[in-house]
Design goal:
Layout lengths: L1 H18 L20 H4 L4 E7 L17 E10 L11 E9 L2 H15 L5 E6 L7 E9 L5 E10 L2 E10 L5 H17 L1
Antiparallel strand pairs: 1-2, 2-3, 3-7, 4-5, 5-6, 6-7
Length: 195
């Protein structure tokens, strides 16, 4: 009886240890939340951060505006900008956000809410953006804010384990493209993977 127990105990310990080592079923801890968004060093010069911290009620739109939705534990946001004009190539404003949920099921439901948000008919020249694999599942869109100098937006949202994340970039129409947003989303995904 004792020898069998000795073999079983290490096997149980090993199984428990492996479960917490970043396998696909592990969760990102709430203590990592502020590290899940882009940082100034991820964007480099000439960008500077002008806002950041815990997400507030006004940071989210329906159907993602309930701070307790789907077992949500918290959210973080960071916003960056740089100087530029209508000839400046690339994004002028970047927003990075992350939300953590008690389980991956909550994150899956939140990504469906992003899909619903992206389908809003109120957005001018809205269209789907094909997104390569980022995290466990990703989606994207672009739209234009009309005006004498139209602004183009790209939004990429994705899910990774028990988190959803999103990057939104803004620049002058014709001077910014999906590749800019995808590169930043991949940079942010690396942060999620390290958590």
């Amino acid at each position: 009886m004792v020898p069998r127990m000795r073999r079983t105990a290490p096997a149980i310990f090993l199984a428990v240890a492996l479960a917490g080592c970043g396998g696909s079923g592990s969760t990102i801890p709430i203590g990592s939340l502020n590290q899940l968004v882009l940082k100034p060093q991820d964007l480099g010069r000439p960008f500077h951060q002008f806002a950041g911290g815990k997400q507030g009620h006004l940071d989210n739109q329906a159907p993602r505006d309930d701070p307790t939705r789907y077992g949500r534990e918290g959210g973080w946001i960071a916003r960056f900008n740089r100087s530029g004009n209508t000839k400046t190539r690339g994004p002028l404003v970047v927003e990075s956000r992350a939300d953590l949920f008690k389980s991956s099921d909550g994150a899956k439901t939140d990504l469906r809410a992003y899909r619903e948000l992206f389908a809003s008919p109120a957005l001018s020249q809205r269209r789907v953006v094909t997104v390569p694999k980022i995290g466990d599942q990703a989606l994207g869109q672009t739209f234009v804010q009309p005006g004498s100098k139209p602004l183009r937006f790209y939004r990429i949202a994705w899910r990774y384990r028990n988190a959803t994340a999103a990057v939104t970039i803004e620049g002058f129409d014709g001077k910014v493209d999906a590749a800019d947003a995808i590169a930043l989303a991949r940079e942010q995904q690396r942060r999620l993977q390290r958590s």
